[in-house]
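2024-03-11 09:14:02 INFO receiving multi-entity request
2024-03-11 09:14:02 INFO entity count = two
2024-03-11 09:14:03 INFO echoing inputs for audit
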Amino acid sequence: MDALTLARWQFAITTVYHFFFVPITLGLSIAVAIMQTAYYRTGNETYKKMTKFWGKLFLINFAIGVVTGIVQEFQFGMNWSQYARFMGDIFGAPLAVEALLAFFMESTFLGIWIFGWDKISKKFHLASIWLVAIGSNLSAIWILAANSFMQQPVGYAIRNGRAEMTDFFAILTNGHLWVQFPHVFFGAVATAGFLILSVSAYQLFKKGKHEVFTKSFKFGAVYALLGTLLVILVGHNQAQYMIKIQPMKMAAAEALWETENPAAMSLFTFGDEKNRKDVFAIKVPGLLSFLAYNRFDGEVKGIKNLQKEAEEKFGPGDYVPPVAVSYWTFRIMVGAGFLMLLIALLSVIQAFKSKYEFKPIWYKIVFWSMTLPWIANTTGWIFTEIARQPWTVFGLFKTADSVSNTVSTGEVAISLVAYTLIYAILMFIMIGLMMKYAKRNVDEIEKEEKEVDNSILSKA
Amino acid sequence: MDLNIIWFILIAVLFIGFFFLEGFDYGVGILLPFLGKEDRERRAIINSIGTFWDGNEVWMLTAGGAMFAAFPNWYATLFSGFYLALVVMLLALIARGVAFEYRSKKDDPVWRNRWDWVIFFGSFIPALLWGVAISNIIRGVPIDDKMNFTGNFFTLLNPYSLIGGIASLLLFTLHGAIFLSLKLTDNLLEGARRYAKKLWLPATIVLFVYVILGYFETDMFSKLGVNPGVIPIFAGLAILSVWYFLKIQREGWAFVMTGITIAFSTITIFMGLFPRVMVSSTNPDWSLTIYNASSSPYTLKVMTIIAVIFVPIVLAYQAWTYWVFRKRVSTKQKLEY
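2024-03-11 09:21:47 INFO inference complete, emitting structure
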């Protein structure tokens, strides 16, 4: 394998891994902030216990999200220095702003939140968790502004052999950003919702009814349903937008070889990627046109036509992304999304009937449902990045030209192995710790804390 | 003054902030397993930076982001050129950040002891490597006419940069010991004072050796002249005065003085660099400068506006955090980490 392939694997592994934690940070910070607001308003101890219980899980997750983010910021220079040179004038700005506006805010106020219980006023303590939530989600906007430029370059000119920014405002108002950010945001809400739902179900099923977890279950169910419903709706918008700006991505997602009008949607395709044709396919006529334009006719361009168009525009080359990966990741994402919708809906019904007994099979379904958002998040990102290939910046700069020209294959191999190893170890440790804290008896948390303190004070 | 110069200064400021703040965090992490004999003591030591370390580390991220935004070629050459060294540093920072959060989340002494050593190495390695990196930038590394680094990992390991690494390591550890003597109580306070006194002499000697080597290894002093001006001299006087303040137990002043040493040394290096951002040892004309490595005037303008608005806000709320959590940490109080 060459340095380019290894660098791509490294970027994929580190980014996918980083994004295991990011959605929980985005979604759970808001959830914890809402719980603490309820506590602040009502003074009800149950809400305080909820805040502390979910707050701990949030922190265990947050730590890894932060440290894996450092690799992300450094990686553009370390492994993609040619990209950094070509794109730095535009791409560096949102990253710097992200650090200045968002990272400082979330990390500083998270410190205040952790250490501020009973030390600062309740009002200010509450404000600090909201600032963490706002900071985290602001950082998502900035990083997605950078990613959106890669999907749909705007506000730039090619000068001095590189892309130079001509309109900062255009980068912030990039249409792609404002279909992508809601999708990521509601996906994060759903991810956090399902985590709360699963762990609450575990506590209710294994340890019996407890107000902290009946309330949490209800909250998680509503949060998950809201997130899932909206992520699907805005996802639909995003797909329609994608057909306009990156038709090749949609064609790859559908394994649509020929241009069709009306276009059929594939339910299952087993294709021959090399010869660009179907071996076996089940299709629903007209459905793809409907998804694209909200009506049952309308042309959707196929891969072969788009390849020809790209050749005319950019010169000879292969402009078709890996179709099988695009097709299946897209389907897994959508499939997981609809499963989530169903489970969230049933959970909401259960919660509003105040029925907290679980049949074992239903418990298992709810418990394992927490893996679905992760599957959807991961396949979603793999899809959107893979189906943009061969480009890093769509239509502007290719992945093969982006890689660092001074970093050897051996060096990338070392870092790839090292990152993967440390990430695997951390994953193992994190899951262990998460399980420990998810299984805790919520009534004993405060008692334990007090006992520890008393024993220390009596010794003193 | 053009925007390129402003951004050069701003990045210098970010590095000063980073070395000043994260410097004592590294020092605290390095001293942790030695100063803290039992679990409660170690927890108190970690809690003394618990509220701050994450916010302090963002100074580094912001410096990196600002380099990317304002001088993309600097960012590209430096980060791809110093590849393996940065990989090692990142691994250290990853493990260290998780260690702070996870260490006290299990009651198991083996678990806790392991994380304490992760904190030690996670602080030791970057404290050393930053000195190595900065020394190489000013000493010069092989860079060709296309701004590509043409050396390898071992190019970075030369006597000058290694002395620079030891200097930053000792200076940060001293800075951390003095910080701890401001934040701890009882036995730990005494211990921190002892470590500060022990560290002062080696830190000062290595720092002066580093300065002397700088005369031979870099063009910094030929640029600044035989009389280098007040800033480097103040950096030297500040570190000398630390001994006096430690002796009369005025740790607040000692801390200000190590802070001045860190800040003024960083300024001296940036002054020596200016207007270059990376020195090419292959051909002086191929050095990266604030002009050939920079972003477009438009991007610099946009970034300047954002920085002017937000840097003061960040400074204000970070300073405020230090004020809110100014109380000393004792082993007898409730500890979060």
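2024-03-11 09:21:48 INFO post-check: Residues 3-42 of chain A form the longest helix (40 residues).
2024-03-11 09:21:48 INFO post-check: Residues 271 and 277 of chain A are 6 Å apart (CA to CA).
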